[in-house]
Amino acid sequence: MRSRCLYLFIVLTLITLCCANEQTTKNVNCENLLVGQYFCDKPVVDNNTQEISGCTKEGTATVPCYPLKGILCNEKLFNGSMVGFHKTIPCRYTNGYSYIIALGLSIFLGWLGIDRFYLGYPAVGLLKFCTFGLCGIGCLVDFLLIALQIILPSDGSNYVINYYGPRLIPLFINNDTFYKETGD
């Protein structure tokens, strides 16, 4: 009985070792590694904007990722400290326009159009300047649009908002949206 158990243990150990060797010699693309086969650096956050450094206008940034020790990908055997690929992560692109400043300009100098000049809309700013904020109605509308973050800077960037500030995240519904059926 002992010899059978020992024989079974040896056979199972050899099978496991053979299968493990087959998995480590398989060459794959590093970007196709599974979660747990690599780790990525945390993105660097800029202290002034509270956003990820290196964010592009398209709203993406890259972080270096390291395949774990013994992983073979892109025809290299990695040791856990070599960069294997760069992962693209989403981010909010900012260009230095402060939400607090834009809102303050809209409240106190909106009737002169200074808020629109600050955000990069000189034609609307000049219209508001010449008509005293469209007789006050334009000031109120612009204040609401800036407060709700509907009007953004003209270069397509987002506002610089404090970490615990009133940041809005728009939600979109498209063909990839999953609808959960209710039990009605």
TrEMBL record:
Statement: the UniProt record of this protein carries the keyword Transmembrane: yes
Classification via InterPro entries: TM2, TM2D1-3-like
Chain segments annotated as transmembrane: 96-114, 126-152
Annotated signal peptide: 1-20
Record keywords: Glycoprotein, Membrane, Signal, Transmembrane, Transmembrane helix
Pfam families (UniProt xref): TM2
One of the record's GO cellular component terms: membrane
Ranges where the TM2 domain occurs: 96-143
Subcellular location: Membrane
Protein name: TM2 domain-containing protein 1-like
Gene symbol of the encoding locus: Tm2d1
